[in-house]
Amino acid sequence: MHSLQTLTKSFSAWVIFCCCCCLPLLLTSPLPPKGPGLASTSHHACRLRKINFQQPYIRNRTYTLAKMARVSDQDTDNRFIGQQLYVNVRENNRCYMMKRIVETVVKDVLLTEVKDRYPYVGEVAQFLASLTSELSRCKFSGQKEHMEKNLEEMKSKMKQLGENGKTKAIGELDLLFDYIENACTDTPKKGVNKKKN
Predict the structure, then answer these.
(1) What tens digit of pLDDT does each residue of 150-191 get?
(2) Which of 30, 165, 171, 180 could form a disulfide with 158 if both were Cys (CB 3.0 to 4.6 A apart)?
(3) How far apart are CA 22 and CA 8, in angstroms?
(4) Please, are residues 173 and 124 in contact by the beta-carbon 8 Å criterion?
(5) In whole angstroms, what is the distance from residue 197 CA to residue 194 CA?
(6) 193 touches 182 (CB < 8 A)
């Protein structure tokens, strides 16, 4: 009888211990992400804060720089930034696509010798680089072939145009600004694709 009482007390102590100590720990510990949770994590990694685009100073610098470069652009047949970039690219991958385009424009255009030809290039390049840095965890979801093809076509066209390709890319910085805002923020700018395509 004595061993039964001891066993009952031990069991009761374990139940109380588990209820008071272990259960709260289990309820408050985060569960590892899996399935749809990963998609939402990826989704948030491909989002920029709207405040990045609400700074009139950098928007004005970007638009002014683009306008100045367009005066020297002799090619009216081609466009780098437009809906053609999104051909066969799912909507949830558009921010990643724009991130890659911004990286290309910063590295292959803004950080070259053109930075000495136009004012504000350094400021705009720094702003765009900060956006790609903020998107560093943004990953592509699915097959990349179409996105890579569209990106390579843009790069090839830019290279083919030589110096005028760089001028054209700078002349389209306002479009790039609007496209990345539209693709990477939760409240896209209405009509950006219709107005500027």
Answers:
(1) 999 999 999 999 999 999 999 999 999 999 999 999 865 555
(2) 165
(3) 20
(4) yes
(5) 6
(6) yes
